[in-house]
Amino acid sequence: MTIASPHGRTQPRLDDGSPVRVLVVDAESSLADLLSLALRYEGWEVRAAVGGAEALRRAREFRPDAVVLDMALPDMDALTLLGLLRQERPGVPVLFLTGRDTAEDRVAGLTAGGDDHVAKPFGLEDAVARLRGLLRRSRAAAPRAESVLTVGDLVLDEDSREVSRGGTEIHLTATEFELLRFLMRNPRRVLSKPQILDRVWSYDFGGRANVVELYISYLRRKIDAGRPPMIHTRRGAGYLIKPPAQAV
Amino acid sequence: MTIASPHGRTQPRLDDGSPVRVLVVDAESSLADLLSLALRYEGWEVRAAVGGAEALRRAREFRPDAVVLDMALPDMDALTLLGLLRQERPGVPVLFLTGRDTAEDRVAGLTAGGDDHVAKPFGLEDAVARLRGLLRRSRAAAPRAESVLTVGDLVLDEDSREVSRGGTEIHLTATEFELLRFLMRNPRRVLSKPQILDRVWSYDFGGRANVVELYISYLRRKIDAGRPPMIHTRRGAGYLIKPPAQAV
DNA sequence: CGGCACTCTGTGAATCGTCTGAGAATCGGA
DNA sequence: TCCGATTCTCAGACGATTCACAGAGTGCCG
């Protein structure tokens, strides 16, 4: 089951109606805070823990439905912690954060089918989407949760990463995809450039806000080309996506 | 009978509709946990036991439909335990886990009766598939259970390990087969390289994600060669398999 | 109607991700 | 033990993607 949250998104719920609980375990508290904030905004209940010892303590009392776990913890081997967490909460899906230099690929370990990985530095939209995907597939979450976003005749499938408008396939690059997903998850709502930058680009992106304009331009070429436009500029405010004209 | 599970896979069920129960008996709890998790993700009900004494206790109260049994237990000879388990639950299929040094002939006798075994270190995809196979063949499970995966005109038989496209037989190596099976069990879903590594390669594989690219390349040569491609790259995200174009 | 701020988009360079050939190491069967 | 099959590493090539920069375009305000 999913219900509408105050701000018009859909809020994740368990079968029994309680909100989904997520435990964020990180090495740096700044990253944990950043993620926690984003997840809380999604309507999830969040606890953050810095280091393994605190994580275990929190897991016991908080009983999370999912865990975000940094592979590089200060006080404990992440895989050890994973084992202990799994003992505490068997079956919880885990989203692993892997450092850029930390043997990027050497992720294989005691992780099983249901888990996922995100490499640092990541974009919040990407990380949050992956966590949504994890919960969607785990039986703890709503069984009928959809992986398809639709606005007008524009369709985006998060699982296959395919986008089409009016039945025509559209190829998008990774960044274009994330941007469009963010827009489509917030239809008819103006999103400011800083907001978009924070959400779609990695937290350590140092570039100018002009990239957003650039990528909006790319998207328009691919999505609106010769059709009633769905991506609109609100001068001085930001961008929004909505179905064209009559189709309300 | 198999019914659709939340995430679009098929979930194993007994004739009476109750989920399949599996008892995992291992020497190390970390391995037991890993396997349990993977099996739970497949939709099975799982209990883990470390050592023979605990295994017997659990078997009595849990009444498993299948058992995963490590040959090297700390407190009891595995064969003794096997006898006791069989007394408790006659006819229950058993998947043996054997260490790399276990004598080949010792296993041969055991698996004669319809049981199976995997050698450590194993890939999860392989181990889980073997357990599925055992249950499929045991009378406890549904008689009509299918062992054939189909995507478009591509057909993979899990029992005979035969693969064909458009009726033409295709020879695959063991690793190629596991990779293709994983893709075909998740059609139209993008699978990331770390996800594939976790699932297809052994848990102690220390290599780089480049092997995935390599084996995708092998598979394409054998499966897509000169035909409408079914294996697709999602740059920066992963790979997915789907039927070509119109054939939905 | 002028001017300013904001937005759009072409160009091009640097970087990144993926593919693939070559060959070493290992496995397994005769 | 030998030989072919298989697995895996390494490195080069190539195309795709990302992004900065700059000039053109556009709307808004006085």
Please characterize this protein's 3D structure.
The structure is a homodimer of 248-residue chains. With 248 residues, the first copy, chain A, is an alpha/beta fold. In chain A, 34% of the residues lie in helices and 22% in strands. The first copy, chain A, has 7 helices and 13 strands. In chain A, the strands form 4 sheets. A 5-stranded parallel β-sheet of chain A has the order 4-3-5-6-7, sandwiched between helices. The first copy, chain A, has a 4-stranded antiparallel β-sheet with strand order 8-9-10-11, covered by helices on one side. In chain A, strands 1-2 form a two-stranded antiparallel ribbon. In chain A, strand 1 and strand 2 form a beta hairpin. The N terminus of chain A is likely disordered. At the A-B interface, helix 3 of A face helix 1 and helix 7 of B. The first copy, chain A, binds a DNA duplex (30 and 30 nucleotides) through helix 7.
Q: Given the structure, what is the number of helices of chain A?
A: 7
Give the quaternary arrangement of the chains.
homodimer
Helix fraction of chain A, binned, reads: 25-40%
**DSSP strand tally of chain A:** 13
Distance between the termini of chain A: 25 Å
What is the 3D form of chain A?
A: elongated
The radius of gyration computed from the alpha-carbon positions of chain A, rounded to a whole number of angstroms, is 19 Å
Biggest chain-to-chain interface with counts: A-B, 35 and 42 residues
For the structure shown, list the relevant keywords:
homodimer; 248 residues; alpha/beta; five-stranded parallel sheet; four-stranded antiparallel sheet; 13 strands; disordered N terminus; DNA-binding
